[in-house]
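Here is one chain, start to finish.
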Amino acid sequence: MKGITKISIIIALILSVIGVWGYKTYDIRKVSSETTENIEKGKPMLLDLGSSTCIPCKEMVPVLAQVKKMYDGKAIVKVIDVNDNPEEANRYGIRVTPTQIFLDKDGKEVFRHEGFFSTEDIVKVLKDMGVE
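Its structure:
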């Protein structure tokens, strides 16, 4: 019994050290501050949260590139890979990828869509938000 207790304590200490090291070295502010910085510019934003391994997410790549080009200077189009940034998936309550979240110039969510979303549908939402 004493041997099992010692092993349990050693394992708990090792896991604690790994947890503290991970917490100190992981910079959660990297993506979050960039998102906040863009919102502070006073422009509406389209966030696309997806994954490089998801087929509908891959289909969104050319759509988002086109929308980004169309609305350059008028709205921000930001793509976040939830595999690389799981904290962003948690922050935005992502259940399905891809998910598109439309934020107004103050950073408030005004519309959310899950799954593939066409250029025409995105343009309609942006126009409804007052972005020409």
